[in-house]
Amino acid sequence: MKKVCVFAALWMVLFLSATVWADNVATKEECVVKCHEAAALINSKGLEEATKIIGDPQGPFVWKDSYVFLMDINGKMLAHPIKPELTRRDHVLLITDPKDKALFVHFVNMARNVGHGWVEYMWPKPGNATPWKKITYIYRVPGTDLFVGAGVYVGGMMY
């Protein structure tokens, strides 16, 4: 009987841990919804106000382990709540991931040619320097040269 109680208690701890962990991990569906909300914000509030809100690390576009960023189709990062230093560059097109993938070029091409879709690459989780496999949803703001993106981390670390 004692073994059954210990097993049940252990199972309950593992179940609750998995539930808490899952509650802190963004989903692909959430990324799509947040990108569409950010696009609607740009259209309703204007670029200047939307850039402030999207770039706010305490704002509504940072949730769980994900966030929304804002770029234009020329490769300029306009808002990034986790790495705001990216907004100080003329463009981010020369930045590559650890596998030499020009991820921002892929973002721009997705926004420019298709309008929306997913791009896979390596990128560190917020607060971490180690790159993880990430899939980001890119969504071009209708009627503009702007797009937003948000992604989820999948799999394990690269190193």
Main β sheet profile: 6 strands, antiparallel
Number of helices: 4
Q: How would you sum up the global shape? A: globular
pLDDT < 50 runs, ≥5 residues: 10-21
Tell me the Rg in angstroms.
Answer: 18 Å
Tell me the fraction of residues in β-strands, as a range: 25-35%
Measure the end-to-end span.
Answer: 44 Å
- Mean of residue pLDDT? 88
H-E order: HHHEEEHEEE
What is the SS-derived class? alpha+beta
- Helical content stands at 25-40%
Number of strands: 6
What would your notes on this structure say?
- The structure is a single chain.
- Strands 1, 2, 3, 4, 5 and 6 form a six-stranded antiparallel β-sheet that branches.
- The N and C termini lie far apart (44 Å).
- The protein is of the alpha+beta class.
- The chain has helices at residues 2-23, 28-45, 47-55, 103-114; strands spanning 62-63, 66-72, 77-79, 116-124, 131-140, 146-157.
- A hairpin with a 5-residue loop joins strand 5 and strand 6 (146-157).
- The chain is built from four helices and six strands, in the order αααβββαβββ.
